[in-house]
Specification:
Blueprint: H1 15-23, H2 26-37, E1 40-41, E2 48-49, H3 51-55, H4 61-79, H5 84-101, H6 106-114, H7 116-129, H8 136-169
Antiparallel strand pairs: 1-2
Helix pairs in contact: 1-4, 2-4, 2-7, 4-5, 4-7, 5-6, 5-7, 5-8
């Protein structure tokens, strides 16, 4: 019989969480975040970058490949039982990194500054230290993203209505 694996608060782990603890160790995930975001330093500066910034130099395909590698941390968080609000925040961090990263030059600078993998690893470790604790920052961040997306969709609608009303008044 298998001995039961206990979580830090001495509760039995689900099979999904058990796989997450054995396959995605803290050391492996920290190393992955380090390699992707900050393993190199520009000499004479404090600016650090990783493979994500280098791969991102290859137009479009590089950002997609780096994004796929970055998904490992989000998948590990899901396996380890991170709550959905934190997973959503991690996915948004990753999506911003990939989408903005596709912009030539500016996107590469954003990749180096944003460090989505470091952010996501910190969110994961925060949950592991304090399970079931969400901060107001999690909800404000997600609310801000929802408002930005709503504005992106609302601006064209408002513009079309405005142009239509203007056109009807002048005809």
């Amino acid at each position: 019989m298998d001995p039961e694996i206990l979580s830090p608060n001495q509760e039995p782990l689900s099979s999904r969480t058990r796989v997450g603890h054995t396959l995605f160790t803290d050391e492996n995930l920290d190393l992955l975040a380090h390699v992707l975001d900050d393993c190199f330093r520009i000499p004479g500066t404090q600016i650090r970058f990783g493979i994500d910034g280098l791969i991102g130099l290859v137009p479009f395909l590089g950002d997609i490949l780096a994004g796929l590698a970055s998904c490992i941390i989000v998948i590990a968080a899901w396996f380890r039982g991170v709550p959905y609000v934190t997973l959503a925040r991690m996915v948004v961090n990753l999506a911003l990194d990939v989408l903005i990263g596709t912009i030539p030059v500016l996107g590469d600078a954003f990749d180096i500054a944003w460090k989505a993998n470091r952010r996501n690893y910190k969110l994961l470790t925060r949950h592991l230290r304090q399970p079931h604790r969400h901060t107001w920052k999690d909800y404000v961040f997600l609310l801000g993203i929802v408002l930005v997306i709503a504005a992106i969709f609302a601006i064209p609608v408002v513009a079309i209505v405005w142009v239509t009303v203007w056109f009807l008044r002048h005809v």
